[in-house]
Specification:
heterodimer, A: alpha/beta, 2 domains, seven-stranded mixed beta sheet, four-stranded antiparallel beta sheet, 12 helices, B: alpha/beta, 3 domains, six-stranded mixed beta sheet, three-stranded antiparallel beta sheet, 10 helices, globular
Chain lengths: 353, 316
């Protein structure tokens, strides 16, 4: 695939050209943090800041999304659920980090598989062209290189941009990416030599790591019954921060909300940290304690997903949960603890009981 | 602070060794600058994990709710101790279950305030002699601790534990020249339109993760009203009306109980200062009933008791 040189003086002109064919989304500074937002006319994505505080998953998986609407008023349409009109016109996601793009690949496995195709997620995903920004300045909490991604990882991206000072080098990775580059009018082909060196330097800059090599071979029930969960879960307050900031957490809840005679069926992010997440209609809650809920989250990400898909862990090492957890539960520590489970010691302890 | 840590370890170890407690709840060093993790210690030899510095802002009373252990040691700064009192008054724990290791508090540093000031990622934060040095990859800045404290600590008048069985140091002087309600007065002075705008903007970033509620020792309802499903009281979407209802109702549930420990604001991943809501109610309780929560085991909370002298001007 081609590498295109985009002079920074040509950047905004290209964005303006793109606006004819795409809705543009990118990181926008809000107080001291960035978040993904639709870019207003003339607005450029903020590419010099650390990664966004919330992940860009909301671009394809909004926190609250109306699915259907209905009327309870007597008449022809009474009690008929109707699709809510949506804007699925092409959109360009500018400045998504490679970790977050990799997260889209993992989430894709859930929303588009042999059994189910989720139209809401897929329509937004398919309408999107992902223009990634390579990470040359990782944070101390980034561990993407050991979580199946990396600062120059190309999975899930259509274009990868690398900042070269006065210009960007754009590696065009897919046809979608090619189309976007043409629409922007960026076409001066370049030699991509500079990319390799920057990639190595960026990877070396990531010092934080997790070990995941034993997760697959470890016995699920041994991990499930391990005695470390009490220690890990003690500080947990069971808020939804980790799940809501996580780019790979995909759970949702569907709610009917009625205002007068109008109803909307909405799907909202849900969190396995919340007690109500697993409450049965009988009132029984199979995950009634915070230990069970915390264990579920880490087992899902670091064991069940690994076993089910054989595509590594369901974590891309973005470090958001590490930074935002109010009580400093650190997935890197949890992953190390799980990965280094001493089976024999565990059995001895269990047998001794 | 180092002296506090040593004294806490020594006390915890002694209590565990002498079987006076089954566990000690405290803090252990976190994996990030300005973060410590609440933890429990059951073995005397693990007491060395306990630490104390200005990053212990999480309120440990939150970890006492309905605990079944017969004897629990708990490290408590001023506000934690006031919430322990509230917990005891509200029957969430018994006084005789607790050995309270009191810590005279000198204020907790505000992670966000420091992050805002730092020119890059913070690699290390060192605290010494009332100063805080913040190191990034490119520089090191030193601030007076008083300038980088949590805003609730800046106006705190109860730094010393109000109830304790052990003390790790002599009491610190209380701040007397502070007005805890300056910010509330500023909001009270606003017009209705200004207030509406203020609260709109305040709550706009909320993602309903409920970290504020869950970090709060007062929020121990088995099922919170926002989670109630039979019948359902609240919408679950990002509808601003539901977001506001959550925050306003939660604040009212804390009326006359809140100690302004700051755990809610500290826990919020999107930096909302929801304390302006609870503080208004704290101020009302003080103005109307002369009541501040959690100061004594001998008096019932203002909204929990009838007193013939209660103000009744609203009855016409």
């Amino acid at each position: 695939m081609k590498v295109i040189k985009i002079d920074k003086t040509e950047w905004t002109k290209g964005l303006d050209a793109l606006r004819g064919d795409y809705r543009l989304f990118g990181p926008v500074k809000e107080k001291e943090y960035c978040n993904f937002k639709e870019l207003a006319k003339g607005e450029s994505p903020e590419l010099d800041m650390p990664n966004t505080r919330l992940s860009p998953k909301s671009l394809v998986f909004p926190q609250s999304e109306a699915m259907m609407a209905y009327s309870l008023a007597p008449g022809e349409d009474q009690n008929i659920c109707k699709e809510v009109p949506k804007d699925y016109s092409p959109r360009a996601i500018l400045g998504i980090r490679p970790c977050d793009a990799k997260a889209m690949v993992l989430v894709h496995m859930n929303f588009d598989n042999g059994d189910y195709q989720d139209p809401y997620w897929l329509n937004l995903y398919n309408a999107s062209t992902f223009v990634g920004q390579a990470c040359d300045k990782p944070c101390g909490t980034c561990f993407c290189t050991s979580a199946g991604s990396g600062p120059y990882n190309e999975q899930g991206l259509d274009v990868l941009l690398s900042d070269q000072g006065d210009h960007y080098l754009a590696k065009v990775l897919t046809e979608k990416g090619q189309k976007l580059m043409a629409a922007a009018g960026w076409k001066s082909e370049a030699d991509g030599q500079a990319l390799a060196g920057k990639k190595t330097a960026a990877e070396t800059a990531i010092t934080s790591q997790v070990s995941t090599d034993r997760l697959k071979s470890l016995d699920t029930m041994e991990l499930h019954g391990a005695d470390f969960w009490e220690d890990i879960s003690f500080s947990c307050i069971n808020c939804g921060t980790c799940t809501f900031v996580c780019p790979t957490c995909w759970c949702f809840d569907i709610q009917d909300e009625v205002y007068g005679k109008r109803g909307v069926r909405t799907r909202n992010w849900d969190s396995c940290m919340f007690p109500i997440f697993s409450v049965h209609t009988t009132g029984h809650n199979p995950r009634g304690t915070k230990l069970q809920r915390l264990r579920q989250r880490f087992m899902h990400k670091l064991k069940y997903f690994v076993d089910k898909y054989d595509q590594g862990i369901m974590c891309v090492g973005c470090g958001r949960c590490v930074q935002q957890c109010p009580v400093n539960i650190d997935i890197r520590k949890v992953c190390e603890t799980m990965n280094s489970l001493d089976s024999e010691k565990f059995c001895a302890v269990q047998q001794g009981k | 602070m180092i002296a506090y840590t040593e004294k806490i370890r020594e006390t915890a170890q002694r209590l565990l060794k002498q079987c006076q407690v089954e566990m000690v709840i405290g803090f252990r060093a976190g994996s990030m600058p300005m973060m410590n993790e609440p933890c429990f210690i059951r073995k005397p030899e693990d007491a060395g994990q306990l630490v104390w510095d200005s990053n212990c802002g999480i309120n440990l009373a939150n970890y006492l709710t309905d605990r079944k252990e017969g004897k629990i040691g708990i490290v408590a700064k001023g506000c934690d101790s006031r919430n322990i009192v509230t917990h005891i008054l509200e029957n969430k724990i018994k006084r005789e279950q607790l050995v309270i290791i009191g810590v005279p508090c000198q204020g907790m540093i505000d992670k966000r305030r420091i992050t805002r000031k730092a020119p890059g990622e913070i690699l290390e934060v060192i605290e010494a002699d009332g100063q805080v040095t913040v190191k990034t990859a490119t520089d090191a800045q030193t601030y007076a601790k008083a300038d980088v404290m949590q805003s609730n600590c800046m106006v705190c008048k109860h730094r010393n534990p109000v109830v304790h069985d052990e003390m790790v140091a002599d009491p610190v002087p209380e701040q007397t020249d502070v007005d805890p309600y300056e910010d509330v007065k500023a909001i009270e002075a606003m017009t209705s339109e200004e207030k509406w705008k203020y609260f709109d903007e305040l709550l706009a970033p909320c993602i309903r993760c409920y970290a504020c509620r869950n970090a709060c020792p007062l929020c121990y309802c088995p099922t919170c009203f926002v989670d109630e499903a039979k019948p359902q009281w609240m919408g679950k979407s990002q509808d601003p009306m539901d977001v506001r209802t959550f925050h306003f109702l939660r604040a009212y549930h804390c009326a006359g109980r809140c100690t302004d420990c700051g755990a809610c604001e500290r826990a919020c991943p999107v930096g909302i200062n929801m304390r302006t809501l609870t503080k208004k109610l704290n101020k009302d309780c003080l103005d109307l009933y002369g009541w501040e929560a959690g100061l004594s085991l001998d008096s019932r909370p203002a909204l929990d008791i009838y007193n013939p002298n209660d103000p009744n001007e609203f009855i016409k």
